[in-house]
Amino acid sequence: MQIVVAVFIEAAMKIKVSAPGKLLLLGDHAVVYGYPCIVTAVDKRLYVEAEIINDSENKIIAPQVKESRFVLESIATFKEKFKIKASVKITTRGDFSHNVGLGSSSAVTVATFKALSLLFDSDISEREIFDLSYEVNLKIQGVGSGFDLAAANYGKTLYFIKGGKVIEPLHNEELPLVVGYSGVKADTPFYVRKVAEAFKSKLNKMDSIFKQIKDLVEKAKIAIEQKDLTSLGREMTQNHYLLQQLGVSIPKLDAMVEAAIKAGAYGAKLSGAGGGDCMIALVSPKKTSAVKKAIAHVGGEIIEVNNNADGVRVEN
Ligand code: PMV
């Protein structure tokens, strides 16, 4: 009987949650300067299991070193805020590698806060989880708009302004996207700084590019809500050309984008900071196979992923 009770308590003390990865649909880089972007959550998820342990130290089991920094900082922030003394063990597992740029750090941060809030039964709102996660993100990376944390936290497809000034869910269904991985790991802080340097020396030119990106984001928002894929694709492609002008694309991403468009995509662009990671193409079902082949033909790796996915949630 005693054993049964012990097993029950042990089971009750383990919390498992998951948060989704993301793809930036439009507005990359401009969002760092206060302009809006559109992000969608994807069904490749990051899982976090949390339990209280009888130890003086917290224990992190994270397969990727990069993630454990985010987990450690999230635990420290949470324990400080809620004056918690107990140690915890956090175990993480991802449906995807941090190399592809789908946002493993943001997903693990949001998932850690969610798991800890359930483990310690803390009174914490959805918004506070976003705010605390953003605090951790800035502490570690020093730069960033927080769009990826919003996707991990709220899920679905969001119109977003830096720091969560605006987080507006768009009422859409899944978008028919094809995702191609360039094979190159992007260094996001490097590219954010590169754009910041250019911004200092060519303020007018850069600001004009950001404003053009903003206009595309606003048009794309309407196109998404009206299910107008032709316009949305056109806006995505124009956004790619503006990102080229910002100096963040690379020949491999350009080749994948051009290949997708030539094979009949409504539009295509790099997604994220540039310098590598993924590109996305908006494609009608009839053209999907041709677009995938065209991207693979120029060396891209197709990543099978659905978008408009759920935000952070409890897993059984
Ligand atoms: O490289 P990613 O997928 O983390 O995207 C970075 C997007 C930027 O706009 C360049 C930076 C940001 O935090 O918004």
UniProtKB/TrEMBL annotation:
Occurrences of domain GHMP kinase N-terminal (ranges): 70-156
A GO BP annotation: isopentenyl diphosphate biosynthetic process, mevalonate pathway
One annotated GO molecular function: ATP binding
Lineage: superkingdom: Bacteria
All copies of domain GHMP kinase C-terminal, residue ranges: 223-295
InterPro entries given in the database record: GHMP_kinase_C_dom (IPR013750), GHMP_kinase_C_sf (IPR036554), GHMP_kinase_N_dom (IPR006204), Mev_gal_kin (IPR006205), Ribosomal_Su5_D2-typ_SF (IPR020568), Ribsml_uS5_D2-typ_fold_subgr (IPR014721)
Keyword presence, Transferase: yes
Pathways involved: Isoprenoid biosynthesis; isopentenyl diphosphate biosynthesis via mevalonate pathway; isopentenyl diphosphate from (R)-mevalonate: step 1/3
Pfam families the UniProt entry points to: GHMP_kinases_C, GHMP_kinases_N
Keywords attached to this entry: ATP-binding, Cytoplasm, Kinase, Lipid biosynthesis, Lipid metabolism, Magnesium, Nucleotide-binding, Transferase
Keyword Nucleotidyltransferase: no
A GO CC term assigned to this protein in UniProt: cytosol
NCBIfam families in UniProt: mevalon_kin
Name listed for the protein in its UniProt record: Mevalonate kinase
Organism: Candidatus Roizmanbacteria bacterium RIFCSPHIGHO2_01_FULL_39_8
Lineage: Bacteria, Candidatus Roizmaniibacteriota
